[in-house]
Design a protein that fits this description.
The N and C termini lie far apart (49 Å). Strands 1, 2, 3, 4, 5, 6 and 7 form a seven-stranded antiparallel β-sheet that branches. This protein is 38% helix and 18% strand. The chain has two domains: 3-87, no CATH class; 96-197. The radius of gyration is 19 Å and the shape is elongated. With 200 residues, it is of the alpha+beta class. The protein has helices at residues 3-16, 25-36, 45-58, 71-87, 119-125, 177-188; strands at 96-99, 109-115, 132-133, 141-148, 153-159, 166-171, 195-197.
């Protein structure tokens, strides 16, 4: 692994601990979950496992991110985090991954469901980064692209207004829209009662 690569991943882990006072087992589990589900710490479990191993082997930390925690405390935390990742093998793919918003226009898509939540509520509940303005748009619409673990891509479309609701778009040709709705609900944890199908 290239030096800059593992150091960059370690810096991400350190940054995620910015507001953490104690590096206890609960924090180990939380950070491992962030890595395994790619929630804030993206790149895959293997990449982070390798980076943690490199940092432990080096016995020192990158100096590009400040931390309130001492170097020995962080290195011990990295050992526990690596062990926690090992205990979760074989690593399962995350239930969903983000697709760059720039790919919005790359595939045909159709509306299949309505979520009775605002874009802010959806991004908070899943959770994801905030919805982004659509490429080539005028700023009145915002969206998010997800690829589910089954390979199906979905678009989430909302308005820029605070009280707008979100429409689920099935991307690509074919596919059972009801199955996509069920897979989306399971992957994101959005309650099924908040999702109204627009197809039958």
């Amino acid at each position: 692994m290239a030096t800059l690569n593992w150091r960059g991943l370690i810096n991400r882990v350190i940054y995620s601990l910015m507001y953490t006072r104690q590096l206890d087992d609960q924090v180990v589990n939380q950070v491992a979950d962030m890595i395994l589900k790619e929630r804030g710490l993206t790149g895959g479990a293997q990449a982070y496992h390798d980076a943690l191993s490199e940092a432990i082997k080096a016995g020192q930390l990158p100096d590009t991110v400040d931390s309130a925690h001492s170097e020995p405390a962080l290195l011990e935390f990295f050992r526990k985090l690596r062990d926690r990742l090992d205990s979760q093998r074989p690593w399962q793919p995350p239930p969903w991954t983000l697709v760059p918003i720039g790919e919005w226009d790359n595939e045909p898509q159709r509306a299949i469901a309505r979520i009775d939540l605002t874009p802010m509520q959806v991004s908070s509940q899943i959770p994801t980064p905030p919805f982004s303005s659509l490429p080539h748009g005028d700023g009145s619409l915002v969206g998010l692209l997800l690829r589910l673990a089954n390979g199906q891509a979905v678009g989430l479309l909302g308005g820029a207004e605070k009280d707008s609701r979100v429409t689920v778009l099935q991307r690509g040709e074919g596919g059972d829209p009801i199955a996509t709705i069920e897979a989306f609900a399971e992957a994101t944890g959005i309650p099924r009662e908040n999702i109204t199908p627009l197809v039958s």
